Amino acid sequence: MEFFTLENKNGLKLTFTNYGGIVSKIHVPDRDGAFADVALGFETVEEYQDHNDAYFGAIIGRYGNRIGKGRFELDGSEVSGLAINNGENHLHGGLKGFDKVVWQTEAVSGDGYTGMKLTYRSADGEEGYPGNLDASVIYKLTDANEWVIEYEATTDKATVFNPTQHAYFNLAGHDGPSPLDHEMQINAAFFTPTDHGGIPTGEIKSVEGTDMDFRQARVYGETIDSEDSLISRLGGYDHNWVLDKQYGELGLAAVAYDPKSGREMKVFTTEPGVQFYAGNFLDGSLTGKGGKVYQKRDGFCLETQHFPDSPNKGHFPATTLRPGQVFRSKTVYAFGVR
Ligand code: GAL
Q1: Which atom from ligand 1 is nearest to the alpha carbon of 303?
Q2: Atom 9 in ligand 1: which residue has the minimum CA distance?
Q3: What is the mean pLDDT of residues 70-85?
């Protein structure tokens, strides 16, 4: 296992490993041109292997977020036996998900970018999922200061697939002051409320008049301890928002902004949803790069995805992938300053 670094003409750098496709460092400039590493993570592959319970920087698959009770019906037959690894539910692909496998690598490049293609064959039955699934994830770093992620997959049996990227960001720098003073904007008028275990109830609920409303940029730390039971039951922001854009087209998901450094990150995706997870489960037990101890809410994730538990929610956009189809998905994290 090894680390790779992509660098663009402006000096931005993206470092990742073929173990789990984990992105361990993202160096981007502030408004004065000073660079900082805005991704939470560890220094060595061994640390990721031993204790990346937080999924820092990893590719998540086969299914990002939760599947209720680790079961669902597919074409009339029951798929069960997915690992129950989060309360009574299945989370992030199981015990050995895409975050814990070794990916093949191949350098790719083109006009205005350098990149790496990561590929992995997930065998029929792996972690309980049907079908041999051939997955690829391309990471690109463009000269427009974008980290582009392109997912593709095919299968030889009907299955479900919902990959995402689990990078944790702090735009002040991973070892800087807490991101709770960042402004967050999420391009969504609706979200998917959940039960106490994070499984959507099935309702598509308006954000209007609630602390879930991020249609205008605002400091997310001010409402993260909201008394709204739909927020407090999950320990803060850890929800899927239903994006206000054409599903399948690349459109705006979210904008995060750190007023101190001036760093801004815009997230674009072809996916219908984004999970804004504010690092509520970080608790000081993980020590990262440079000895930085990550405390509660020291980083946030914007995980572009289909909605949690879609295999059990017929009215959510489907995550079924069938033989002959090609799964394609694209997400862009665009870095800038104000
Ligand atoms: C997020 C999820 C959280 C938590 C986290 C990992 O994607 O929404 O509930 O499981 O991953 O600690």
Answers
A1: 7
A2: 238
A3: 96
User: Is the CB of residue 16 less than 8 Å from the CB of residue 48?
Assistant: no
Q: Is 208 annotated as catalytic? A: no
Lining residues, ligand 1, CB within 6 Å: 54-55, 65, 91, 198, 238, 275, 277, 281, 303
The range of the structural domain enclosing residue 62 comes to 3-178+261-337
- How far away, in angstroms, is 8 Cα from ligand 1 center? 31
For residue 272, give the CATH number of its domain: 2.70.98.10
Contact call for residues 333 and 168 (beta carbons, < 8 A): no
- Confidence class for position 234, pLDDT limits 50, 70, 90: very high
Cα–Cα distances (Å) from 123 to 28, 98, 128, 131, 198, in that order, read 37, 12, 10, 7, 28
Count structural domains, the chain.
Answer: 1
How does DSSP classify residue 46? H
166 carries an active-site annotation: yes
pLDDT at 124 over 90: yes
